[in-house]
Amino acid sequence: MSGARLIGAVAGGLAAGLGLSALLIMGEGRSGRPSELAELERAGARRLGLGVPDAGTLPGPREQAIIQGGHLLLSAAAGIAYAATTDEDGDVLSSGLLFGLSFYAAMHWLVGPLLGLKKPEWQADTSTIGLHAANHLAFGVVTAAAARLFARR
To answer: How far apart are CA 117 and CA 124, in angstroms?
Structure first.
């Protein structure tokens, strides 16, 4: 794994994570309800015995910084995982889609439910499953494309 490819994968993960964070924050503004990411953060805080705002309350600036900061850290870590687990010469589209799908399965089908942060994905409706899958597929492709771009420099 080249250093340039690793930097590219992290940059791509951060860019994709930032884009998804922006969409979630805009969704909060339109719906008037906390995003699913805010609910995940609050579930984690409750499990740690920390106080959380009342259900349905939109995150304030401090909480939003914690939510999105954690999301971006996870996005950067996913970029590292992408660079470490994929073939540098592999096809960007197929490796990105496969990574995005794997990341989706790991987070939504395994880790989130096992940690008690979210209900199991198989209990969600098909539109939610489709949205989560599409977001993670896009994340994987952006991460793969950035890794390839940086590796060629």
So the answer is: 14
105-129 b/e with 16+ CB inside 10 Å = b? Answer: eebbeeebbeeebbeebeeeeeeeb
Say which residue the tokens 């590219």 belong to: 8
Amino acid letter, 91: D
Residues spanned by the domain of 112: 3-151
Q: What is the pLDDT of residues 37-63, one digit of tens each?
A: 999 999 999 999 998 998 899 999 999
Give the total number of structural domains in the chain: 1
pTM over 0.85: yes
Nearest to 16 by CA among 135, 150, 151: 135
- Which residue has 């198989």 as its token pair? 122
Residues 124 and 102: their CA atoms lie apart, in Å, by: 18
Residue 35 buriedness (CB in 10 A; 0-12 / 13-18 / 19+): buried
Using CA atoms, how far apart are residues 52 and 42, in angstroms rounded to an integer?
6
